[in-house]
Amino acid sequence: MSDVQVSGAGERRRRRAGGGGRGRVRGARRWLAVVFLLPALVLLGALVGYPIVFSVVRSLFDASGDGFVGLDNYGAMFSDEGIRTALRNNVVWVVVAPTVSTALGLVFAVLTERIRWGTAFKLVVFMPMAISMLAAGIIFRLVYDQAPERGVANAVWVGVHDTFADPAPFPGAKPRPRAGLKPSGGGAFTTGSAVRAGAPVLLPLVAVQPDDLRGARAAAVAQPQPGKVTGTAWLDFTRGGGGRPNVIDGNEKALAGLRVEAVRGGRVVASATTAADGSFALPAGQADGARLRLPAADFAEAYRGVDWLGPALVTPAIIGSYVWMWAGFAMVLIAAGLAGVPRELLEAARVDGAGEWQVFRRITVPLLAPVLVVVLVTLMINVLKIFDLVYIIAPGSSIRSANVLALQLFQSSFGTDVDEGLGSAIAVFLLLLVLPVMYVNLRRLRKERRR
What we know:
Blueprint: H1 3-58, H2 72-79, H3 81-111, H4 118-126, H5 133-143, H6 152-164, E1 174-175, E2 181-183, E3 189-191, E4 201-206, E5 228-235, E6 259-264, E7 267-273, E8 279-283, H7 284-287, E9 291-294, H8 314-339, H9 343-351, H10 356-367, H11 369-384, H12 388-393, H13 405-414, H14 420-450
């Protein structure tokens, strides 16, 4: 055998030996990776995999867990009115809350780029993220309180309203029984008979608040006047007792500022306002033979603001508290993306004559599209599991109107009417709702890696 053949055979043996060694090393590394990943896989299976499998299986059984019902729990889920309300509210949450939060975050990030105190502003906007959902819920439960002296929202709203609308002079007041004034609809009161010139009309009222009588003068008996229909409105109540009903006693107070209307055929033909002593006078040409009416505006209750937590507004109000918390999160992420936008593109567009709105709409927003998608998808996933804000802010009278799927899951599983089968069905349904959003997010991440 030649030297060349011998050397070739030796080389082949060395390669085979080396290849086997590399295979053994590769196999050892694979087992080492499995050993290191095993604790994480066990935790993942125990905390994620097992609950998912258990929930799917449990959703196929009845409330006791003994009877197999198949898909009946899923059918009951869509036939229950409360759960349908929760599903509608979840749609509103998913559409409105992430969109508004992302839009506000974009506006804040762009506007704070050019101001000197932009960092301080971003810090203030981001601060709510440091507050737990529980604390935020308690804060906004007070903010939305119906009483203006406690609720900030209604304090501001009432202040604006009262600036442009005159308050009623005597809210809550009403005629004295058997005084000849009858309810005429909408909170107004009308005399039972027509009035005549020369015969003063008495309009006794009760239930006037003491604060509305500060500085009031004593009532005076109206005197007949030629060509006039006269009368007096007063508080027919004597402190300490002793007064006579439907008679003006010496120490009874006048009700100044009341509007008195003469009504004929359902139409107001004349009107007057009571003076400081409670007296009024109407022209006899229009008022003689008409009936006198005290309109509802004289007695309307003081404006108490908006029922933010009532059935009609409770969901938008809670979404507002969520936006307050998460707009800062969106702003920080978008500001980080904005820092990577090439400034020369923006300056080139301005040099070419583009306005700030055009630069924002046609350059800034398209370049920030990947970041905006990340923020939007993250908030959508977060919104699908919203629970604490709704549970804390919504009062008992409005909890059904504000219901969401996560809250319904809690109530069905641990509430008064416990049905773990229905609760598990809701949990599986929530998981199915989250999966498409997660799939979109994973596809986006893969595209980013390929770039």
